[in-house]
Amino acid sequence: MLIITAEQLGKLTGAAREALPNEACGLLAGEICGEEKIVREVYPLKNTDESPEHFSMAPEDQFAVIADVRKKGLALLGNFHSHPATPARPSAEDLRLAFDPSLTYMIISLAGNEPVVKTFTVKNGAAAEEAIRVEK
Known about the structure:
Distance between the termini: 16 Å
CATH topology: Cytidine Deaminase, domain 2
Radius of gyration: 14 Å
Largest sheet: 8 strands, mixed
């Protein structure tokens, strides 16, 4: 289960809206307590592809985040990206690029009137929806 605050989620959905018409992307960091992944930091990053259909993060941006995560004694929990016009489910490309089954893959869909946020784990190319709890 991924646990995230309403404030953090607001930051992520805001980043997704600001990136329109392109996909937003970034990394999530926090603590792992048994089956729970508790988000402590969200890191919106620039989508270097500047595309509404896919995303890439600059390696130097990712390295800077990992350095900050380590400095704070946190763990990388996963990544997030938005789908500006499609549902919050992994695309074929998302599945192909999901290499680590221990990570959470968050997708924020802006296809409807309100954002829809879902999280997934991906193992052997198959996605399983992960529970998400939003705390105040």
